[in-house]
Amino acid sequence: MKSYVDLHRQFSADIETELETSLSRLGPSSHSVRHAVAKLLRHQKMEYPLSVLPLMVHGVETGACSPAIPLSAVHALWWASACYVDDLADARDAHAAADLSSHEGLLAAVVTGHILPFKALDSQRIPDQVRPALASEILNCGIVAAEGQLSDMRADVNAATRDSVVAVYRGKSGAPFGMITAMAATLAGTPDERVALWREFGYVFGILWQIFNDQEDITSGRNEDLQNGTVTYLLACALDDASPANRGCLEDLHAAAQSSDASRAELLGLLRDPSVLARYEKDTNEFRDEAHRLLTELGGDETYMPIMRHLVQQASGVLL
User: Fold this and answer.
1) d(CA 150, CA 67)
2) Is the domain 4-315 a CATH 3.40.470.10 member?
């Protein structure tokens, strides 16, 4: 059975061509902008090639992937911009790594995530009549994702619960996945009720992917979430099931972990407690099951549906 990585190998050259074409649509007078955006795109390569997600949705709906290649470009552009800005917000030297000044990098990120996706919709692969609906998905995603990101940045560990963290994840990670799955379904000509189901699938998958990403931050040893004071779902699992005294200890360690290696190590030990991980795994499995339930309700081409289900399984693994 093919995996989503195999699908990316098959279409990666086409996606790169579509990205270059979108960049060229900025026009001949935008040399500096195109140069800065090209630098950012070279730096912000996706570790996991999820740009094929719209290809998979379109394949499930129609049996054909290639019409959705412009949407793969949209997805890659959106995430390149979002991840770069996220690094800047976390005070990491993203601009230096991309060989851009901070101001150049910020401008390049704005163009990459908020102008180029609309240029990608000018592709000849996309019929004129669906462009307004696709553009609306991009605009709505920008609003919902920004709300989620701001809520994440302002999260108060003292008031954090599993439900409050899920609400944040639905915005900052679920919205872009919901955007791209709904866009692919719209491009495929599916009825509104199926578009809504695909959007909801994207939201649920986005939660799973954020949980997966949170775990990788720990298993890699980066521990950037602890250094940034991020309230993760794993932390919320520990807080929700803690006694008042233990919750206070977790809150104090969370604050100290931003500047103390010893506090980070102690907090990591508590987060890996078997009872916390059991809760974490149970909830992750429930998100996984909901994603599979939505796929079952949707149904579709049996060439691409197994690839989609396999991706859900990969995203829902508990790595800790």
Assistant:
1) 34
2) no
